[in-house]
Amino acid sequence: MPFLCSICSEESTRICARCTKDACNNHLCERCLRCSDCCECEVALVDQELRAPTARSMFPRPEPEPEPEPIPNPEPEPTGPEPDPV
Ligand SMILES: [Zn+2]
Ligand SMILES: [Zn+2]
Ligand SMILES: [Zn+2]
């Protein structure tokens, strides 16, 4: 059962380091790991319900492409009845 943010009731995976209430990513400070109620880093943001996506998680990550292995192509010789040249 997922925890629910104590502020907006959204699904939360972490708790506040101070009041130990559940807080979603939007309401949990990354710096002090406190919920918006307890966070003292960005007090000005508490009143604003801004949901700006963190640019940190939107970095394009270059993924190394796996080299395609050469597929052996075993072609079985057709074993049909060959006409006897007489
Ligand atoms: Zn929340
Ligand atoms: Zn808190
Ligand atoms: Zn904080």
Order of helices and strands: EEEE
Largest sheet: number of strands, sense, barrel closure = 2 strands, antiparallel
User: How many runs of DSSP E, i.e. beta strands?
Assistant: 4
Amount of helix: under 10%
Query: How would you write the strand order of the largest sheet?
Result: 1-2
Cα-atom radius of gyration? 30 Å
Q: What characteristic shape results from the CA principal axes?
A: rod-shaped
Given helix and strand content, the structural type is: little secondary structure
Strand content: 5-15%
How many H/I helices? 0
What low-confidence regions span 5 or more consecutive residues with pLDDT below 50? Answer: none
What is the CA–CA distance across the termini? 81 Å
Bound molecules: zinc ion
Q: Average pLDDT across residues?
A: 81
Write structural notes for this entry:
This protein is mostly loops. Helix content is 0%, strand content 9%. The chain contains no helices and 4 strands. The strands form 2 sheets. The protein has a two-stranded antiparallel sheet. A hairpin with a 6-residue loop joins strand 1 and strand 2. The mean pLDDT is 81. The site of one zinc ion (ZN) has 8 residues, from loops.
Task: List strands and helices in order, with pairings.
Blueprint: E1 3-4, E2 11-12, E3 14-15, E4 22-23
Antiparallel strand pairs: 1-2, 3-4
This protein binds zinc ion (3 copies).
